[in-house]
Write a structure and sequence with these properties.
Distance between the termini: 42 Å
Number of helices: 14
Largest sheet: 2 strands, antiparallel
Helix content: 40-55%
Strand content: 5-15%
Order of helices and strands: HEEHEEHHHHHHHEHHHHEH
Radius of gyration: 34 Å
Structural class: mainly alpha
Strand order of the largest sheet: 1-2
Shape: elongated
Amino acid sequence: MTFFWSSWITLISFGCWLFILGVLLFVLKYKPDVEEDGTTGHEYDGIREYDKPLPKWWLVIFFGSIVWGVAYWVFFPAMFPKHWEGIATVEVDGETVPWTSKNELFSELESNNEVFTDNFEKSILVKADAAGATTTLATLNELQATMRRSENPPADLQAQIDEKVTELAPYVEKLSENPNALKVGSRLFLQNCSVCHGSNAKGAPGYPNLTDNDWLYGGEAGNILTTLHNGRIGGMAAWRDQIGEDGVRAVAEYVLAISGNQNDYELDQTKVAQGKVIFNEPTNCVLCHGPDAKGMISAGAPNLTDNIWLYGGDRETIRETLRYGRAGVMPQWETKLGNERIMLLAAYIYSLSDKTSATPVTAAATQPVATEEAIAN
């Protein structure tokens, strides 16, 4: 709010307060002329008006509300908010700061989080034989607090944070075997993740299935932790301008030829051969999907030789992906959930995933292709 409007509202409020107080004092001091019987001489429909004092209980409440209003102005930033912060304070992140509704919210969230963290350490970590995570969590919290407060954090600070996140992976695996941890993790998943991945975690077009063993960025506990902490930004480039419409159709045909759903289509072998050449150009599809087309976890590039497709594996969808590209975002959850809740969420997701070895897909060719998008599994 600008200084003009905050000043205008303050002056109006102060003026109303003075007006009400003035009217009340005037009424208390005003003594009308009365008749011998105590009436004012006014009569209507047989009803005569007496001059009786205001009830004391009413006066106490009225004056009390005025005093409360003045006290509110003093304690809270109600007068000229940009220049008067009030004398009320709250504790936020270990510091005493002036009261604001935002600071009060953060303070209450911290208090609730302290209760949650205490229960997490005593009732979940200990019972899951994962108490060793407490030291790592404490260090991680300190590093993250330093990151938040620093305008120019040390160059290696993020690397230190990532290292501590990775150190939590063995404890996540232990939590994935603890019923209490999984109960809390499932609630966190339903509250935060199900809107995209579905309540059964099987995903939807553009949103990965979390119950299989196909992971764009890796399905180990450490990979899941990193994804939840930092988020992912997946990108599949648009290729129509580089390779033309004929190139798009040729590469799409080649992708069908090496994918797990090739038996559903009658393939144009001429286009397959053309697409293979385009695909294997050093600056084209092979750069991300690899020479065997099985993708790269480091790049979030999907395996194109199976029948698992984030956006669909039919011929026209593959062509559309090649023409226009794909873009997806998995948000980071570190600032919203905190490290302890992320551990529980990661444990739940890790428990859902199929950890059996992937069954190789028989393909007509063993070379790669350039479609399917990449976003945070």
